Amino acid sequence: MSAQFTPPPSGVLVPVPTFFNDDQSIDLETQAVHAVYLAKSGIKGVVLMGSTGEGIRIHPSERRAVIEAVRKAVDAAGFENYPVIVGTCEHTVQGTVEQLTEAKEAGAQWGQCLVPCYNADVHNEDGIVNWFYDVADKSPLPIVVYNYPGVSNGLVVQPSTLAKLSQHPKIVGCKLSHGNVALVTQVTLNPAVDMKNFHVYTGLGSILVPLLSIGASGCVDGTAGWFPKSLVRLYDLALKSTVSQLSPEELELRKKLSYGIAAQHEIVVKFGVPGIKEATSRVRGFGKVGSLRLLRKGGIDGGDAGWATWSPIMQAMEDIEKTL
After folding, report:
1. Domain range spanning residue 206?
2. Are 96 and 113 in contact, with CB atoms under 8 Å apart?
3. CA gap 248, 179 in Å, rounded
4. CATH of the domain at 94
5. Residues 33-75: tens digit of each pLDDT
6. pTM higher than 0.90, yes or no?
7. Which of 44, 104, 164, 175 is the catalytic position?
8. 175 belongs to the catalytic site
């Protein structure tokens, strides 16, 4: 990475789960194999220990091992310098910078910093800007602002705040895990935001097509952990912003992928991290169903019978995935 503090690449990135053994230790082997699988499938980078990775449940002593295992595996598989982004969920500047420093030492190129949200004040724009500027000034890594209202006390970072944050040379993007296209538009199309140096990602692959049409850089989507090629192909098709640029076959595939991704995204909406981990296990064989620290249990309601209700859409997506 150059000293220009470039953003992560455009395209599809995956917030990967953290895989656990039966004794709750981290399954570093599965962690590494899954990351290589994603790299081989066209995924542009991985986010470790974000919300999907249960970062809040990963002990500081374990973080370095996870990063190093992934870095070593992707490098050995021929993906040297493969983008590795590491999440932080500290509320202190000092703690956040410590995690970012360790992430760099272990081989990561970017940090993804959750907006501090304990007793969140949605009107405290100056406080958010000052906090991120302080972190960025001290961080050895460029950072991506992470706004996920579902885990952030309902806090939605406003476009004006993101525009101010984009002016810092080491704040190189944002991941917005809300579905408010109007708010995203006010960032991506704001003349004050240099989209070459500040990439905007959605956390929802289901709205990838409309967001790319307004200048977003891609998605960081959990469902790409089990259907990576489908999300990558949808991204490629979405870059053709007008229907006239698509052949009839491409247009039909874009419709099928958009529908399938939106339909199976309901697993994420309804079941959160447990659903993501169960789908990753059942569809791709990575990890074990119910292998969680978050609440230590959970998954898709109804066990095998509950999973069966998702089989038609999963099979339709798998049929497409196999052709890509």
Report:
1. 11-240
2. yes
3. 29
4. 3.20.20.70
5. 999 999 999 999 999 999 999 999 999 889 999 999 999 999 9
6. yes
7. 175
8. yes
